[in-house]
Amino acid sequence: MKTQDKRIISVATTGSYPRKEDNPNVPITPEEIARDIYQCYLAGAAVAHIHVREPDGTPSMETKYFSEITKLVRQHEDCDIILNFTTSGGVRWSEEQRLDPAVQLRPEMASFDCGSMNWRHSTVFMNQPAFLERLAGTLQELNIKPEIEIFNSGMLSEARYYIKKGVLGTPAHFQLCLGVPGGADATVKELLHLRELLPEGSTWSAFGVGRNAMSILYAAIALGGHIRVGMEDNIKLTRDKLADSNAQLVARAKQALELYGCQAATPEEARQILGIHR
Ligand code: ZN
Fold first, then answer.
1. CB within 8 A of 48, min separation 6: which ones?
2. How much is the pLDDT for 91?
3. How far is CA 41 from CA 15, 224, 242, 268, in A?
4. Rounded distance from Cα 75 to ligand 1 centre (Å)
5. Is the pLDDT of residue 125 over 80?
6. pLDDT band with cut points at 50, 70 and 90 for residue 92
7. Ligand 1 centroid to 87 CA: how many Å?
8. Distance (Å) from CA 89 to ligand 1 centroid
């Protein structure tokens, strides 16, 4: 099978927003998150995008929780899933708090939110240029692969600037995040538009938040992209049914890939695709 037929399934198990009240199966504690990551690995995920919470479910950027999850996942000797830490953890953390888990624990990947935006009609998701340069420099120094999260085409323009300046390395990897209120809608038209604007030679993945998740998943597969699923983005399996688990969402994504004629990449294959060398 050719490399382009191997597609990376990323799972975002938790995020900063969904709560047990929304879906009792959202993993919140480090034990629950680690258990879900392992089950998702067994179901076909190659990358785990990690957010953490306080015991009461509120968003957190405490390094100790990231550390606990890392330790619990690595207790499974067969599990070489790539860990991808959030560097935002919601919208209210200081630069130091955002950087600390990645700096202390050096995961293979970390998110890089390439611009500021109005967030869910409620606040500003702040990513000042000085912070982005600092974050990119730190990730380069620690050999952590940035996953450049793109919420609208302006952020791609920023990414091209940072690549040209050498702040971001190439080939770059992008996560096209569609359907967050304030950003690009989760439509195939937006996906096509953003994909056309990607720097040449980049790898990319996409997901849609909410009801159009499956449109984006199938379109990304058809367009040659990688895919992301998980309760950070969708707590439902279908429009009227809650997901039983993150692994259920991964299993469906893997099945969609296989029905199309592709295969889910293993973590080792994902490292090759993304150029991760440690
Ligand atoms: Zn996230």
1. 10, 11, 13, 37, 40, 41, 73, 81, 82, 83, 84
2. 81
3. 18, 22, 21, 12
4. 24
5. yes
6. confident
7. 8
8. 7
Amino acid at 218: Y
Cα of 177 to ligand 1 centre, how many Å?
A: 10
**Quick one: what percent of the chain has pLDDT higher than 70?**
99
For residue 33, what are the CA distances in angstroms to 27, 28, 43, 127?
Answer: 5, 6, 15, 27
Q: Which residues pair with 47 in a beta bridge?
A: 10, 82
- Helix intervals (H) in 75-171: 95-105, 129-141, 153-165
Res 110 pLDDT > 70: yes
Query: Residue 4: which pLDDT band, with cuts at 50, 70 and 90?
Result: low
Of 165, 146, 257, nearest to 203 by C-alpha is 146
Mean pLDDT of the chain: 96
Rounded to the nearest angstrom, the distance between the alpha carbon of 232 and the centre of ligand 1 is 7
Ligand 1 centroid to residue 77 C-alpha, Å: 26
Over the stretch 162-183, which tens digit does the pLDDT of each residue have? 999 999 999 999 999 999 999 9
Please report the sign of the dihedral spanned by the C-alpha atoms of residue 6, residue 204, residue 228, residue 30: positive
Over pLDDT 90: what percentage of the chain?
96
What residues have their beta carbon closer than 5 A to ion ligand 1? 86
Instruction: Decide: residue 241, CB within 10 A, 0-12 exposed, 13-18 middle, 19+ buried.
Output: exposed
Phi, psi (deg, nearest 5) at residue 50? -115, 125
Query: Coil, strand or helix: which one is 24?
Result: coil
